[in-house]
Design a protein that fits this description.
By secondary structure, the protein is α/β, with parallel strands linked by helices. About 45% of the residues lie in helices and about 15% in strands. It binds 1,3-dihydroxyacetonephosphate.
Length: about 260
C-alpha cells in the first residue's frame, strides 16, 4: 500500500532559528495527533542539522517523519565548488531529496539528463527521490499537459528498474501555473493527471509497482483546499510551499490527510 505524505518545501525562506521553532511547533502538535501519514521537512541546506536536532530531541518515528533536502549534487565527491553530495546529506540524517522542481529546471537550467544523474546518485546512496513534474500554463492551455508530463517522467526515470521502486521514488505533480499563484488545480484536474501519471508508471513497470508509488500534488496547497485534493483516489498527499512556512497552516494541511 502506498504511503500518504505531506512534504513541506520551504524553498529559500526562514532563518535557521526560525526553522527550528517552526519544526518544533509542528511536531509537538502533529505527534499528538497520532496519524499514520508521513511528514517530510525540506528546509534550506543551512537549516538541516538544526531541524534534525529537533526531530531527534522529540524522538519522532523514522517512518513517519523524514528530513529532506531541496537539492543535491549528482556527484559523490570531488572538485565541485558549492555543491553538496547525497552522502554528506545522508550523514546528517537526510533521507530524501527533491529533484526536478520547476524552479530548478527553469532558473538553474537543470536538464532531464542532469536530473537523471541526480536520481541515479541518490538511489545509489539508498536515498529517496521526490521527483517533480508539471506543465507551464501555455502547455495546459494547448491541452498538451499529459504528453508533457509523460515526457518528463520518461526522460529522467524510465531507465530505472521497477523492483522496489516505491521505496525509492515519490512523485510530485506540480503544475507550474499553480505554484505560488494561489491558483490551485481543481480536484478533478489533479485526479485526472495523477491517474494518468499512474497509468504511465503502470505501462512501464506494471500496476503492482505503480499502485505502490505515492504521487503528491503541489501548487498552492493549503488548509482550505487540501482535504478535497487529498480525497482524490490517486492523490496521495501534497508537496507544500508557502503553507509549510507557518506551523498552523502546515498543520492544517497535515490534518487534511487524515485517513
Ligand atoms: P506553493 O505551495 O507555495 O504554491 O509551492 C508549491 C511548490 O513549489 C512546492 O514544491
Amino acid at each position: 500500500m502506498r504511503n500518504k505524505i505531506v512534504a513541506g518545501n520551504w524553498k529559500m525562506n526562514l532563518m535557521p532559528s526560525e526553522g527550528e521553532v517552526l519544526v518544533r511547533d509542528v511536531l509537538k502538535e502533529s505527534l499528538a495527533l497520532k496519524y499514520n501519514q508521513s511528514v517530510i521537512f525540506c528546509p534550506p541546506a543551512t537549516h538541516l542539522m538544526a531541524v534534525k536536532k529537533v526531530m531527534t530531541e522529540l524522538e519522532v518515528s523514522e517512518t513517519n517523519y523524514m528530513l529532506g533536502a531541496q537539492n543535491a549534487s549528482h556527484k559523490l565527491s570531488g572538485a565541485h565548488t558549492g555543491e553538496i553530495s547525497p552522502e554528506m546529506l545522508k550523514n546528517i540524517g537526510v533521507r530524501c531529496v527533491i529533484v526536478g522542481h520547476s524552479e530548478r529546471r527553469s532558473m538553474y537550467h537543470e536538464s532531464p539528463e542532469d536530473l537523471k544523474k541526480k536520481v541515479d546518485t541518490l538511489l545509489s546512496e539508498n536515498m529517496i527521490c521526490i521527483f517533480c513534474c508539471g506543465e507551464p500554463l501555455a502547455v495546459r492551455e494547448a491541452e498538451a499537459h499529459m504528453e508533457y508530463v509523460e515526457k518528463q517522467i520518461e526522460e529522467s526515470l524510465f531507465h530505472l528498474k521497477g523492483e522496489g521502486l516505491s521505496n525509492k521514488i515519490i512523485l510530485a505533480y506540480e503544475p507550474i501555473w499553480a505554484i505560488g499563484t494561489g491558483k490551485t488545480a481543481s480536484a478533478e484536474q489533479a485526479e485526472e493527471m495523477h491517474a494518468f501519471i499512474r497509468s504511465v508508471l503502470a505501462k512501464k513497470w506494471g500496476s503492482d509497482v505503480a499502485d505502490d508509488i505515492s504521487i503528491l500534488y503541489g501548487g498552492s496547497v493549503k488548509g482550505e483546499n487540501a482535504a478535497e485534493l487529498f480525497s482524490c483516489e490517486n492523490v496521495d498527499g501534497g508537496l507544500v510551499g508557502g503553507a509549510s512556512l507557518n506551523p498552523n497552516a502546515f498543520l492544517d494541511v497535515i490534518k487534511a490527510l487524515k485517513d
